[in-house]
Design goal:
Largest sheet: 5 strands, mixed
Number of strands: 13
Helix content: 10-25%
Strand content: 25-35%
Number of helices: 5
Length: about 200
């Protein structure tokens, strides 16, 4: 399932007017991203290959041991549990970002029956300096709330990866289902390019 499909499945509405793709001038310490992952029934990793996947029912994140070797020096406070068959490891714990992710332009807010919120916005998602420092320390963290119009709204948690982790995943050849959805600092958010009014994210 792509990140677009996953968000739509959750009933989360996004109207993506802005897009950010890092280049060599963007330090990895200044951004993070949500990743769209293949399910384990869609991709069978070759032996000895780093791979990061969703479980078949999409309720869990799973990884191969070579991927854990890649992540180990870059992640702290993140725990993986070996499955019974021993071929994949399942994410058992990741920390939560200390601050909500800020949405500079939120257009619609709707609270679901679970109490969690669905928010449409223009595609810009901003990490506070505290969040960036936390993500650079821990490598991976859950986003469990958005800040919009000065208010905090709990959302269905989404896993976010720091820029250095993203670079390592790319260098290791980890395959993604779709392009990452980036979260940036406020300076970058103010300068990202407008890409139109299509309902993409």
């Amino acid at each position: 399932m792509s990140i677009v499909s996953e968000l739509e499945e959750r009933g989360t509405q996004f109207y993506r007017l802005y897009a950010f793709t890092p280049d060599e001038s963007d330090p990895p310490e200044e951004y993070g991203a949500h990743l769209s992952l293949f399910r384990e029934d869609e991709k069978t990793p070759a032996e000895g290959t780093p791979a990061l996947l969703k479980s078949e029912d999409e309720s869990a994140y799973v990884a191969t041991l070579p991927l854990l070797d890649v992540l180990s020096p870059l992640t702290h406070g993140v725990e993986w549990q070996e499955r019974e068959n021993g071929s994949l490891w399942e994410l058992a714990h990741a920390p939560q970002l200390p601050d909500p992710v800020s949405l500079p332009a939120a257009y619609g807010l709707e609270q679901g029956s679970t109490g969690l919120w669905m928010i449409s916005h223009d595609g810009r998602m901003v990490l506070t300096e505290k969040n960036l420092a936390f993500l650079n320390t821990h490598g991976m963290a859950w986003v469990d709330s958005y800040e919009a119009n000065g208010e905090r709204y709990p959302i269905s948690p989404m896993l976010t990866y720091g820029g250095r982790v993203l670079e390592s995943l790319s260098r290791s050849g980890v395959e993604l289902r779709d392009q990452p959805i980036y979260l940036v600092n406020s300076t970058t958010s103010d300068s990202v390019e407008n890409v139109g009014n299509g309902r993409q994210q």
